[in-house]
Design brief:
The chain is of the alpha/beta class and about 240 residues long. The chain has eight helices and seven strands; from the N terminus they run βαβαβαβαβαβααβα.
Length: about 240
């Protein structure tokens, strides 16, 4: 990344539900020179996610209410209660299943740090995607959702990827509320409506460790698809 006299405070939020096998790899690959704190939010995990995250040097929160959005909201609440000099300038969201490549975080941060962007989405559609890392229903769902966002909100995205960075003040400004599957699309739709400066960068994507709790089940796929479409139309 380009040199900057005032290095921003970057903190990472990782929602994790039963990711004991993968969380250590995720934490290992996060660039320590860029990130001041990594927070793993254990979303009702029943395995060793929490102890493995602690062993990996993360701050661990426990959110007993199921739901990706609930975990993310718990992470935001934690950041808000920190002393002002410890609150982040930029928040990075990252999944705990090791499908994302944390070592690519500098690429994600660069448009905010030096390019004046408010939010950057790591696009799996634009990057190198390992065969089998996304199910056909995920690929179609992302295409449909981003096409609708383009038509309705006049902002072009290629992905609803979970690996993303956003200025903390802008994250608070858009007022996230979704508790489950609509989290990523809510952030992008609200950012579009509020005129935030958004861009995408290509990111790599690999097969996750373990089975997806969403695309790995028929129920999860249907529920996620319904919630994403409902969220897109909700904010018109």
């Amino acid at each position: 990344m380009s040199p900057n006299p005032k290095r921003p405070i970057v903190k990472v939020l990782i929602p994790a539900y039963n990711e004991a096998e993968s969380i250590g790899f995720v934490l290992r690959d996060i660039p320590k020179d860029l990130v001041q704190e990594t927070v793993v939010i254990s979303n009702a995990s029943t395995d060793d996610t929490e102890s493995n995250a602690e062993a990996g040097g993360a701050t661990v929160l426990r959110e007993p209410r199921m739901g990706y959005g609930n975990a993310c909201l718990a992470g935001i609440a934690y950041l808000k209660q920190l002393p002002p000099d410890q609150q982040p300038d930029i928040v990075v969201f990252l999944d705990g299943d090791y499908s994302d490549h944390p070592e690519e975080m500098a690429t994600l941060l660069e448009p905010i740090w030096t390019g004046g962007m408010d939010m950057v989405i790591g696009s799996r559609a634009l990057g190198a995607r390992e065969s089998g890392s996304m199910q056909p229903q995920q690929i179609f769902g992302n295409w449909l959702a981003t096409t609708l966002i383009k038509w309705i909100y006049r902002v072009e995205f290629s992905d609803l990827g979970p690996f993303r960075a956003i200025r903390f003040d802008k994250l608070l400004q858009i007022g996230m509320v979704d508790q489950t599957y609509g989290w990523t699309v809510e952030m992008q739709v609200k950012a579009a409506k509020q005129g935030l400066a958004c861009t995408e960068v290509p990111v790599s994507y690999r097969r996750r460790i373990g089975v997806s709790k969403v695309s790995g089940t028929v129920k999860g796929t249907i529920m996620a698809g319904y919630k994403i479409l409902w969220t897109i139309f909700k904010y018109i």
